[in-house]
Description:
It is a single chain. By secondary structure, this protein is an alpha/beta fold. The protein has 2 domains: 9-39; 51-177, 3-Layer(aba) Sandwich (Glutaredoxin), CATH 3.40.30. It contains 6 helices and 7 strands, in the order αβββααβαβαββα. It is globular.
Amino acid sequence: MPVSLPNESPQYRAARNTLLKAEADLRANVEKVANLRRNLPKGGEILQDYIFRSERGEPAPLSSLFGSHDTLAIYSLMYGPDAQSPCPMCSAFLDGLNGQVPHISQKIAFAVVAQNTTEKLVALKSKMEWNDLPLYSALGTDYQRDYLAEAQDGSQLPILNVFQRDQGGITHFWSSELFFEPSDWHPRHVDAAWPLWNILDFTPQGRGDFIPSLR
Length: 215
């Protein structure tokens, strides 16, 4: 049905309809990309069952993080052992996910890992009020290096990885490798799961060069 809004000019409606067509094309392309992603062939088997540490300091093998699900998404938080505070950008991303975890967890398993001690992660979780985010320490494991979340110099990287489990074992499914592709300002590799940028992109100012501060 035709759409119009109060007091809009013909020029506005013409431009908005052109934009609407572009938005519909983008929506179709987003679904096309999602379909390509869903149809990826099986990735490589995990190199080992990485032994993380839970918030209680107990061993938590990667395989145990699946729970009753066959799919596990792991976000690598940039918070290395020598860091005084976590990456503000990562933190803003996780702020947005915290409230969604109870819904996400009905379909898949979700976890956050960081190359830091359980004590510092527990303190961070309390400070940030990430009540529903399950945090694990990857300290002492090769997980971050193996799955693109740690550079050769030890720098931490904000990569999202997805794994799947079946009778044959655990394999890698997808990683936010867009992080490593050239970009004009920000990699936008996990923007689809990040409300902040999507809301700002609806506005006249756009996202600009805004960088969130640590809450």
